[in-house]
Each structure stands twice: as C-alpha cells, then as structure tokens.
Specification:
single chain; alpha+beta; Alpha-D-Glucose-1,6-Bisphosphate, Chain A, domain 4; 7-stranded antiparallel sheet; 7 strands; globular
Length: about 170
C-alpha cells in the first residue's frame, strides 16, 4: 500500500498532542498498564518491538508505514481486512528508561483521537511495564452507528498490544 497519499492528510481531531497532558473531557478515555517483563534485555526488546511497529503486527494488524520506526511525523496506515486506519506520529519519547510514541488519527480513520504507547524500565527492581493511554470518539459514520462496538474493539486491541509486547519479552533474545 502506498502511504504517500496520507502524508498531507489532516488530523481529524483538534487536540493534537493532548496525550502529554490532561485528556480532553469530551472523549472516551482508555488507560491500561501491564508488567510485561524484567530486566534491561526485556526493556530493550519491548522498546524495539514498539518503535518498529512489531507490537501492531503482533496484535494482528498489517502495517504500512512511511518509516521503518516511529519517528515524529511518520505516517502509518494499519489495516484490518478492508479497514484502513491512518495515523501520524505526534511525538516520540526517547529517555533512558522510557521509550514510546503517540500517534493521532488522520482523515479516514474509524476513530478520532490520539493514542500513547510507552515501555518503562525500573532500575530499582528491573520491572518492565507497558502503558497505553488514549482518548477517542467515533470518527466515521459506521463507528458512530456502532456505538459500544467501537469501544469493545478498542479494548480488544489494547489487550492485544499489551499481549504482543509481553510475548516479545518471553521469547529468546
């Protein structure tokens, strides 16, 4: 798939970057965390999987991206069957013990909002924790009609993302 047509697409929501601060009240909010591993090797493996789109692949999505990894302004179009899910990376977190990114939905996305993914390493006890936080509202007519179905799909994929990152930590490195 050619993602170049999405390079100039607009975000389909006004609160770009809001995952850095307080989430806007008018959206549905999701916040999930899970301990996925232990030790620096698990942290590096999980961070690599996250930043190189492997978390999405592990969750069952096809990934079409303008960049091999999540960098600011990278465009990624995820596909689930015939459904196209275009996003643009809003910002990246690149700290010694925290790696991740947030992306925002583009015109054509089934939802409207932003999602933050990051993996944290605690040097104190070696714990590796994955975090997902999002705010969203229906972005297309069919997600508005579907009502709670969209929330269920979001919950399912949040769990799949966390499971995919945990699987990376369990595999031989």
């Amino acid at each position: 798939m050619d993602v170049s047509r999405y390079r100039t697409a607009s975000f389909n929501y006004a609160d770009v970057g809001a995952t850095k601060n307080t989430f806007p009240a008018r959206y549905h909010h999701v916040t999930e965390s899970r301990v996925i591993g232990s030790g620096l090797k698990d942290f590096v493996a999980a961070a690599d999987a996250l930043m190189q789109w492997d978390m999405h692949r592990g969750a069952g999505l096809k990934v079409h991206s303008s960049e091999k990894s999540a960098v600011p302004d990278a465009v990624v179009v995820l596909t689930l069957g015939p459904i196209r899910i275009p996003c643009r990376v809003v910002y990246v977190i690149d700290e010694a013990n925290r790696q991740g990114f947030a992306y925002g939905t583009l015109d054509g996305h089934p939802e409207s909002g932003e999602e933050l993914f990051h993996v944290d390493y605690s040097p104190a006890d070696g714990t590796v924790t994955a975090h997902i936080a999002a705010f969203s509202s229906p972005g297309r007519w069919y997600t508005r009609l579907g009502g709670p179905v969209g929330r269920r799909v979001q919950s399912l994929f949040t769990d799949r993302y966390l499971t995919a990152l945990a699987a990376v930590c369990r595999s031989p490195q």
